[in-house]
């Protein structure tokens, strides 16, 4: 396996496990949140899906400045169901994975992504790992939400 294969496998596995969690949340609990300052379950799912789109734009333009120049298709789309959000996100997800597939080892090591607006500049390879980590953290949060709600949690360690 080369670097791209490993990155793609990681993105696919993280998303597969996220979807297991997302689909296990009862529809009537998608608006639940542990406190007034937290995301609801649905908002967190949307945050992850939208975040991947936004991160992709940052990677393409090599920095956070991209966010002020691109239209965000999620801004006017309200979350309704997991299935609907996944269907809406599918073309953006496929475009993101195509982007990753087309990267060279040199790109991963030498391309710099400027996020100095939030305190860092990192290599493209580092940023790709951060994107998957971001999703994983939120999946863990949703598992905790489910425990707190008393909802059966899926086995993501298959």
UniProtKB/TrEMBL annotation:
Span of domain DinB-like: 11-142
InterPro entries: DinB-like (IPR024775), DinB/YfiT-like (IPR034660)
Entry protein name: DinB family protein
Pfam assignment, any one: DinB_2
Signal peptide start and end residues: none
Superkingdom classification of source: Bacteria
């Amino acid at each position: 396996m080369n670097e791209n294969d490993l990155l793609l496998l990681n993105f696919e596995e993280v998303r597969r496990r996220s979807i297991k969690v997302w689909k296990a949340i009862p529809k009537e609990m998608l608006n639940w949140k542990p406190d007034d300052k937290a995301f609801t379950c649905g908002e967190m799912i949307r945050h992850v899906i939208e975040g991947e789109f936004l991160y992709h734009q940052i990677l393409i333009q090599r920095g956070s400045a991209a966010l002020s120049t691109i239209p965000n298709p999620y801004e006017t789309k309200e979350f309704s169901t997991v299935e609907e959000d996944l269907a809406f996100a599918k073309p953006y997800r496929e475009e993101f994975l195509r982007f990753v597939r087309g990267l060279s080892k040199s790109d991963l090591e030498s391309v710099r992504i400027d996020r100095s607006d939030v305190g860092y500049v990192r290599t493209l390879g580092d940023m790709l790992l951060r994107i998957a980590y971001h999703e994983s953290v939120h999946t863990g949060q949703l598992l905790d939400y489910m425990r707190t709600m008393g909802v059966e949690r899926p086995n993501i360690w298959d």
